[in-house]
Amino acid sequence: MGWTARNIPDQSGRTAVVTGANSGLGFVTARELARRGARVVLACRDEERGDRARDALVQELPEAGPRTELRRLDLGDLASVRAFAKELPDERVDLLVNNAGVMALPYGRTADGFERQFGVNHLGHFALTGLLLERLLAASAPRVVTLSSGLHALANIDIADLNSEHSYRRWIAYSRSKTANLLFTHELARLCAGTPLVAAAAHPGYAATNLQTAGARMEGRKTTERVMALGTRVLGQSADAGALPTLYAATAPGVAPDSFTGPRLLGWRGAPAPSWRAPWTLSDVAAERLWAASEQLTGVTYGVPA
After folding, report:
1. What keywords is this UniProt entry annotated with (predicted)?
2. Taken in order 11, 306, 119, 283, is the CA torsion positive or negative?
3. CATH superfamily of 11-297
């Protein structure tokens, strides 16, 4: 049968931050961590949607009410990322789930001028993790789980054009941002090798969430939106199933640093299992170059103990 949410170890006493927790995979991740006793911070860009998500979570799990909290976080605005980290009262964070993301959007820029998919999917989470690193390292067994995608295999990063200023193709830009997520995990795992922190990555396969239709909806492409929605309903697994690789990477004993967990069946659906990744996501040189560029772009540097 494989690993399910029932296998999540007791999370009592642990504090988890889940980005994009208002819907889809993030909501399921937050809910299941809360179900197993964790204190969960729902980090959401839209406070109204975040409030509804927290209400739904508490309605299902009344006992989790005192242990769930909504805080605003816009990963497309570094000022918001800094404010979130500064205002988070916890002296210790045991788990950070870098879940939020955007997919195949029309060209746009974040508040800081970055191409939107690279800025939200990678740079926002890079900055957030760095700003919370001291509190993560204060925990006895901290983890950082970053969501990538099987579609990372479509494109490597272009270190000379990280913001797609020379050309922009929405799916290539998305794939590059997901490669960046894996390179970030690779370098974070290397830098934290002498600490208890485990940096791991996961992907949901093809999960039925609203991510696939967001780009078409933004542009008013109704036919494309309907086709994508139909394909998602027919081919996609549920958000509950899609969140299992994340939950496994976040909680299962023995998860290795720089591991990549996805669905067992061809990386598409099924129970969590080790996932194939493109060779370029394991390049030390590429990871170091992306890391240096990310520090320069965000102004966030990592203080990892020697």
Report:
1. Oxidoreductase
2. negative
3. NAD(P)-binding Rossmann-like Domain (3.40.50.720)
Grouping H, G, I as helix, E, B as strand and the rest as coil, residue 272 is: strand
Is 302 a known active-site residue? no
Mean pLDDT of the chain: 92
Instruction: Choose, from 107, 174, 206, 302, the residue flagged as catalytic.
Output: 174
For 130-159, the pLDDT digits (tens) are 999 999 999 999 999 999 999 999 999 999
Q: Look at residue 209 in the predicted model and tell me its pLDDT.
A: 57
Helices 244-251 + 24-35 axis angle, to 10: 40
Question: What is the pLDDT averaged over residues 42-48?
Answer: 97
What sign for the dihedral angle of Cα 235, 169, 277, 243? negative
For the whole model, what pTM was predicted? Answer: 0.91
Q: With a cut of 70, say whether residue 71 has pLDDT above it.
A: yes
Cα atoms in the 13 Å half-sphere on the side-chain side of 149: 27
**Residues with Cβ within 8 Å of residue 174, at least 6 apart in sequence:** 103, 104, 117, 121, 149, 151
